[in-house]
Structures
1.
Amino acid sequence: MQESSSALALVLGGDPALYAIIRLSLLVSLSATALAAVVGLPLGALLALTRFPGRTAIVVVINAFMGLPPVVVGLAVYLLLSRSGPLGFLGILFTPAAMVVAQGLLVLPIIAALTRQTIEDLWAEYRDELTAMRVPPSGRVATLLWDARFSLTTTLLAGFGRAAAEVGTVMIVGGNIDGFTRTMTTAIALETSKGDLPLAVGLGLFLIAVIVLVNAAVWGVRRASEIRAG
Amino acid sequence: MTMRPPVSDLPLVLEDVTVAVRDVALVRDLSLRIAAGAPTVLIGPNGSGKSTLIRLAMGLIAPTSGRVTWGGRDASDGRRRAVVFQRPVMLRRSAAGNVAYALHAAGCARAERTRRLADILARVGLTHLADRPARRLSGGEQQRVALARALAHDPEVLFLDEPTASLDPASTKAVEDILREVAQTGVKLVMATHDLGQARRLAGEIAFMLRGRVHECTPAERFFTAPATAEAAAFAHGDIVI
């Protein structure tokens, strides 16, 4: 009971450090989701529409990678970006940019795999019409992505949820630097290990509230445009 | 109207065509010649191969054996053929959006698109529903959207697979009126139907199909008054033929 009341005080108090953490968390997770969407949506659609040797293997691997352990992705990106790594010259390790890349990699398989399934189902419905209209392959991809846009918002939310909730990659490649790379999840982990449970619980509740708010906002936009477009 | 390419897809000829899926023949040794002129109506019981014939003629499936030619050519880009399926799929857009999509797919220039869109919507009587989401329209209205999409391709041959099978009489009449008008502009209609009354109203010639073959192909008046085969006579009379 004491935990939740001090958590409430923290939230109502409007601590600027807290808002900086929330802002960074949102910024990193939304950017990572956007980055993964730019690659994952067309990739998933292409996999849905094409048949080539080895396609099944790729589909299985991408599906399996939906369950990639965040710490492993974090470790891999750490090795790539560390000073002696192949991408060390970029000098972005322990910056928000590295966190976006790492979370993007984590989210990419989720978006690609769910997009592939959605587009494949819609293609089964549209195949005859689009073939009869002689829509070229590039046009098919664009049409299917556009017409599946409402289902795909759920895919993007699943990706965002994964990014916002994970702690492993941002901890490893971000380093949990106060005021620079500290996110809500890394802060919760830190406060818990320090024994400041009220703060940890407060941050946890806040994190959940932020995720619910983002989902509610997306849902509202989706409903509004669905009513317009059918 | 967009300029029609000089080559014609007619006559469309199917010679001894067989389509088999896992050893089950959907059509067997089917032959038919579809030439320009009055509408050809395909009638026959379920499973007699009407839809398969339409898919072959559209080029959507390839024959397992036999030959399909369009205007004497083995291949055709299909630019002058359009189809309305029995249960057309509405794209998740407005009625006008569906037709605009088809116009774009048909290569209609942007400058012309607005005018042709309005023109086609008026032809199928959908002007007042243009902005409504297509998937919320009634079955009859959706069928007219599908017709409008097909017309967007400015087809030389228009295939229709039981376009009024699940429509009420008023919607059926609306579709038939449009089809009659389309036929008058010189578009060849090839329509499958179960509705003998509809066949009587629209057909120039009847292709009576039975067990994956064209059993008899005759001018419509002759089919309904003096059919050549006993099965066709029974079917035209309204008996159940299997």
Note: The interface with chain A takes residues 58, 60, 77-79, 82-83, 85, 88-89, 91-94, 101-102, 105-106, 132-136, 149, 153 of chain B (CB under 8 Å).
2.
Amino acid sequence: MGFYGDRQSGMREQPRMNLTRVSYTLDSTLESVNKAEQAVTDIGRKARLSEDEIGGLSMAVREAAVNAVLHGNRYDPTKRVVLSLEASADAITVSVRDEGTGFNAQAVPDPLAPENLLKQSGRGIFLIRTFMDEVNFRDLSPGTEITMIKYLHKGENKEDASR
Amino acid sequence: MMKANTRQIEGVTIVDLNGRITLGEGSVVLRDTVRNLLADDRKKILLNLADVTYIDSSGIGELVSAYTQVKNQGGDLKLLNLTKKVHDLLQITKLYTVFEIADDEAKAIKSFSN
């Protein structure tokens, strides 16, 4: 998946020929959420995605980073978030890993159900699933890793995310 | 960082929001603005989102929370001038049918008096 050697806070890039693979180890802060969003926006631009696609991709990654920082690591300064980005000719794959107590994606209530429409929270995972083509969660005990894939060839094997 | 400026026209408070409504600053600015208006007994609120460039799930939650708070106090909160991005987001989350949404400020102001 990604390059996990860098345990220092901050950003270090590991470019490969026509495959871009980068990994960032980030503090559990809101600033990290913005960094994650910016990093995936840059990758999307390099992959020449449309602004709409970049918007969806960056929102999905932002939501995943918020989950990791806020719900996973609970802003714990001793815990880190690892963001890995991989861009190939076919897809952009992003994984976000936290060191939290774990999380059950199936247990999140449907935010579109009438009784949940006016709830203040609970839309993050839904937005991630809306904007990405594949979403998987892995229980790391401790911690959770979410891996999200966005395919680059539109219309071949995915639903229209704008619906 | 998000900014919120308020104007008063015919008893309606128009809040011109500018920037990103996201977890942290943007959401807090919106929450504080609505809280202050309610404390001031200004319960007819029109949020002008023309210059809101981005909203995340936290920002959506803040909009919903503002809406329910104002409604619970017998007031009304409506949205004005959505960008395509924000419009799409409200449609995806099915909130487009919850909020009253306008694209003409004068008409939106008049709609409060009914």
Note: Residues 1-10, 13-17, 157-163 of chain A have pLDDT under 50 and may be disordered.
